[in-house]
Design brief:
- It is a single chain.
- It is globular, with a radius of gyration of 18 Å.
- The N and C termini lie far apart (64 Å).
- The protein folds into 2 domains: 2-89 and 158-219; 94-152.
- It contains 7 helices and no strands.
- The chain has helices at residues 2-28, 34-57, 66-84, 98-124, 129-152, 159-183, 189-219.
- The protein has 220 residues and is mainly alpha-helical.
- The model has no long low-confidence stretch (mean pLDDT 86).
């Protein structure tokens, strides 16, 4: 059993590495171009498969890791929604597909559970209750934003693009954090916070740039 787990971990690490490379690559090249789309697809597939591999492993004896489980779950969610947002580009689309609602609903329910358990853990001194509370809170915020997007996407022509950018970049941030904390074993406040700070600033920059470009095009 152990050799099989070891091989799975190596595959997870390899795919995670591919995901990080293609993730950075998609950010560096021209947005919307063929290379950007191709790298984005490789990033999504690599990260989703890598995270799916580590989810069950993170619960096995001698491999238990609440951090890896939560960060992998969030990465899958973020990348799936980021990719699904592209389907809302078509103005013929009139509503969210069942798969979109299902992904967000599952994450919403799981987030509610994490917040509740985090609060329970705080009151009863359960280890890692902060992780549950933080990840659960983030999940609640993002999934609520998802449902608002599903309801109003036809009223805001660039909502799909902003949703795509936000979730894909956030997925890359989560992956970088996992690599630093779990891969490099740097379990420090800086390792936790710095990728999120830089990534959030980048998300804000692109959201403002996109909105500014759309405003200029309307005024022209």
């Amino acid at each position: 059993m152990e050799p099989t787990i070891t091989i799975a971990i190596y595959i997870h690490a390899f795919l995670g590495g591919i995901g990080l490379i293609t993730g950075f690559g998609s950010m560096a090249v021209k947005k919307g171009g063929k290379l950007h789309k191709r790298m984005g697809k490789f990033f999504a597939i690599s990260m989703i498969v890598s995270c799916l591999i580590i989810l069950p492993i993170s619960w096995l004896p001698n491999h238990e890791s609440l951090f890896l489980f939560l960060i992998s779950l969030f990465t899958i969610y973020l990348v799936l929604i980021g990719r699904r947002a592209l389907t809302f580009k078509s103005r013929k689309k009139i509503k969210a597909a069942p798969i979109d609602l299902t992904i967000s609903t599952i994450m919403l329910l799981f987030s509610v559970f994490m917040v509740a358990y985090g609060i329970y853990g705080f009151l009863n001194k359960v280890p890692d209750h902060t992780l549950y509370t933080v990840f659960g809170g983030l999940g609640l915020f993002l999934t609520i934003k998802n449902f608002i997007f599903y309801k109003n996407f036809r009223e805001q022509k660039v909502a799909w693009l902003l949703t795509h950018l936000t979730h894909m970049i956030a997925g890359l941030i989560a992956s970088i954090t996992a690599f630093i904390v779990a891969g490099l074993k740097l379990w420090t406040l800086t390792a936790w916070v710095l990728p999120s700070v830089i990534g959030t600033a980048y998300i804000i920059y692109w959201r403002l740039k996109t909105k500014s470009k759309i405003t200029k095009n309307k005024a022209a």
